[in-house]
Amino acid sequence: MQTDVSTKETLQPIGKPVTFASTFKKWVKMLVKSKTGTLGFVIVFTVIGVSLFADVLAPYDPAVPNPVDRLQPPSWIEGGSSEYLLGTDNLGRDILSRLIVGSQVSLLVGISAVLLAGAIGLLLGLISGYYGGWIDLVIMRTVDAFLAIPSILFMLIVLAVVGPSLSTLILVLGGTTWVVYARMVRGETLSIKERDYVRSAKAVGAKDSRIIGKYIFPNIISSFIVIATLNVASTIISEASLSFLGLGIQSPDVSWGLMLNDGREYVATSWWVATFPGVAITVTVLGIIFLGDWLRDVLDPRMNTR
User: Fold this and answer.
1) Domain range list for the chain
2) C-alpha torsion sign, points 140, 145, 150, 153
3) Rounded to an integer, what distance in angstroms lies between the CA atom of residue 73 and that of residue 71?
4) Which of 172, 190, 183, 176 minimizes the C-alpha distance to 139?
5) CA–CA gap between residue 24 and residue 112 (Å, rounded)
6) pTM of the predicted model as reported, rounded to 2 decimal places
């Protein structure tokens, strides 16, 4: 029997092999070309850096009150002091220090809740989409039940009954947002499992775990990452909303939503108490959204024409 030379030639690698360094350089170039992606990356990188070194960067203890200096305006306004660049709140606590330390809680809640929700949604979505049948029916009806109840109402009820705390807040946020991932993963799985290479793997007797791990999961991870990134922003907003309503982070802990709650009575007279945490939330959420949009463009195969 003669060897098929043409077949052997087609199996030879074409061009340079793909390495981590080349992939990293490609991503950096794509990031630099995108103005919104670069801006989002700078904002997110800055917020993460500030949260990691918050204890060093904060000039004062954010939880220690100083009634003598209460409601001091920012340093550039008449009556302000260089000791408090962004002023003080109703208890004389330095707003800049509270903003810096508050970034830790906002990112911790946002990232932790998304990781929890993503893990639950990914697992249930894969199981539902791959196996179908009564398993798919039960999981999807559960998803429909969660979607039928407004998430903010469900979170308010649970937190009012159980009591607000950092761990409870993460569990509630993660336990109510997993349905987004489950529906997305299920839809992707239903599409991918009908492709020829998955059918071929089943025909040769490959195990379900191997098919899911080798053929299905790698093809849905890009969409999963994009949705998870964007949901960090919505989770930060949810945490701020719950803290503003008094059912989220509690004193002496610091969060941007709690700072908004502290400053709502002083909007007319001491606007800086509520304005700066509101700006911090807005800028951070916009940065995450910009970065998520860039990731969507990069990871979506239909957007990559080269």
Assistant:
1) 57-303
2) negative
3) 6
4) 183
5) 26
6) 0.83
